[in-house]
Specification:
This protein has eight helices and 18 strands. With about 350 residues, it is an alpha+beta fold. It is globular.
Length: about 350
């Protein structure tokens, strides 16, 4: 199977994807198209909701299994587009359109890699999964599919990293905090101002530090991003609510950080979820060692992906650049698709997972 042909087919498939709006939780149409294409390529696609996957035709339960995963959903178009985000437009070797970089190029490159590698037997099984709801960490995405798959030993998660391997990724926890006071008339100096009580906790959040820092991910980061309080100028507010964005490193689970924050603040603390923990793969893992041997540079990623929902080792690596994601006039260099397919094949062909 010629890799140049695979790259051309991948680019054409990406054009079809871009022409079908697939904002998170609205991926049915793009999943329908991909399912039809997989069937035409005789890949025997399986489906759960808007998630699609195909199994290695040589699947052997005695072998370890590698998952190739990328997501089909996109964010909504931001202001500033000067092109139709749903019309694939090629200019000077760049393909423009919403989802070209994040994450369509990874979807089509990994799918073609799967086709190439499963044409012959490997020492491992491959599963390709095009999942949905990644941009919103939705429960109908990869989290709903993993229980339906055979046991996975390791995954490659396609995200725009310039084909450099992210071997660690920060986790995410969102906290809703509420400071309580007592309402009163502002002119009379009555009541207890909830804003002032919140400020004490906000100052602790701004200045606190956590002992364990990561060489790849750095320290845990806390950011107060939303504050809401008050009903009118002459009423002392009795509540002040604020939202905290918590980015964890691999040394702390989200539940551990929650307990620390709860102990050190007077406000009520409620976590929206503990699901999205930090992840890391061993630098001695054969996948990481092969990537390094190919001249790739392992790094720690500050951005979240479906790795956070994977209870097995994973490596994030895909075509494109994270800085183009969620921006106006998003694009992928068409050469990046062919380069990704070739590098994925070099990474995986003949790989042994024994170490």
């Amino acid at each position: 199977m010629n890799t140049d042909t695979l790259a051309q087919e991948a680019a054409e498939l990406l054009r079809k994807m871009i022409a079908i709006p697939s904002v998170s939780r609205e991926e049915q149409a793009v999943a329908d198209m991909l399912e039809q294409q997989m069937a035409e390529w005789q890949l025997k696609p399986l489906r759960h909701g808007h998630n699609l996957w195909c199994m290695d035709p040589h699947f052997d339960k005695e072998k370890p299994t590698i998952l190739l995963n990328a997501h089909t959903d996109t964010v909504r178009p931001v202001a500033g587009w000067t092109r139709d985000p749903f019309t694939p437009i090629e200019e000077n070797g760049r393909l423009y359109g919403l989802g070209t970089n994040d994450d369509g190029a990874s979807v089509v490159s990994l799918l073609q890699t799967f086709r190439y590698l499963t044409a012959s037997q490997q020492s491992y099984n491959l599963i390709f999964l095009a999942s949905c709801e990644e941009e919103v960490s939705g429960k109908n995405g990869i989290e709903s599919v993993l229980p339906l798959l055979p046991p996975i030993n390791v995954a490659i998660v396609g995200e725009p990293t310039g084909m450099q391997p992210a071997i660690a990724e920060k986790g995410l926890m969102v906290l809703d905090m509420t400071a309580h006071g007592r309402a009163g008339h502002a002119a009379r100096g009555e009541g207890i101002n909830a804003i002032y009580k919140a400020l004490t906790d906000i100052e602790w959040l701004r200045t606190c530090s956590f002992e364990k820092e990561s060489t790849l991910l750095g320290p845990v980061r806390l950011s107060v991003t939303i504050i809401q309080a008050g009903t009118q100028h002459n009423v002392i507010p009795d509540t002040c609510t604020f939202t905290v964005d918590v980015r964890s490193n691999e040394f702390y689970s989200n539940e551990e950080l929650y307990k620390i924050i709860d102990v050190h603040t007077a406000s009520d603390v409620k976590a929206r979820s503990f699901r999205l923990n930090s992840s890391r793969i061993d630098v001695a893992h054969p996948l990481v060692k092969r990537a390094t041997a190919l001249g790739r540079t392992p790094f720690g990623s500050p951005t979240l992906s479906d790795q956070a929902l994977m209870p097995f080792p994973s490596l994030k690596m895909g075509p494109g650049d994270s800085s183009r994601s969620h921006t106006a006039n998003e694009y992928i260099e068409l050469t990046e698709i062919g380069e990704a397919i070739n590098l994925y094949i070099k990474l995986l062909d003949g790989l042994s997972l024994t170490y």
